[in-house]
Amino acid sequence: MDESMRPPFSHTRAPKLKPVFAAELTKALSLRSVQATFLAVLIMPAALSLASGLAFTPDRGGSIPFESLGFETAGFGQPLVILLAALIMGTEYLDGQLRTTLLATPRRGTVIAAKFFLVGILAATTGLCAIALSVVVKHASLRGHGLELGEFSSGTMLNLLGVALNYALIALIAAAITAITRTIIATLVVLIPLVLGVTISLVGVFPALRFLPDLAGLQLLMPYPGVGLLDPLPGALVMTSWATVLMFIAWALFRRRDVEG
Predict the structure, then answer these.
(1) What value does the mean pLDDT take over residues 246-258?
(2) Are 182 and 193 in contact, with CB atoms under 8 Å apart?
(3) What kind and span of H or E run contains 44?
(4) Cβ distance 139 to 186 under 8 Å?
(5) Which of the ends of the chain has fewer CB neighbours closer than 10 A, N or C?
């Protein structure tokens, strides 16, 4: 087709998600704050597992079911995953780079979709790697009382997938709140106290709290019997609903409002 015959506005076609995602990945991984947080999420659960494993004595046993050993550190990774998501979504609001991003990719819906996709992928991957390492380290540090690599059951893999799903959803919720408020601080103030145990201490008095995003999917990390939490599957559905609604609000606002502020 001759160039003169092309539609006059053909250059304004929506960009594909893949190159925008690649650009967002490059930007995110170039930030030292993101690099440090990503490494902390990977290392901290395993370090905590090592410490608790070395302190284990057979005569004292423990309150954690044997098949859940190593998964008890997953909750400590949540605040860092929240910070990681907030940094990826919110750093451009701090340094003014969002205007440059939108000049390069004017389709705002594609930009925020790529950011959400990146946050979800990184969080899920981090969950799989970090907690798999935590489980292996925990059993290895039990000095003959833990499982060998070949002895782990399919249930362990299902637990790991549950952690990956939980990390992805809490990260998407964090990214959505950051996009809605256009500040990292609001996300940290809202979510981190929740995942650090503020709500679980009150769920016995106020059972409706189990439908909050931090508690809804908590049993995806490991079993918490006797607390009154949702089972893993309904909890995952409630947590997914929170993430979906918040991402839709963030997407709608991001497409319509001004860049600055």
Answers:
(1) 89
(2) no
(3) helix 32-54
(4) no
(5) N
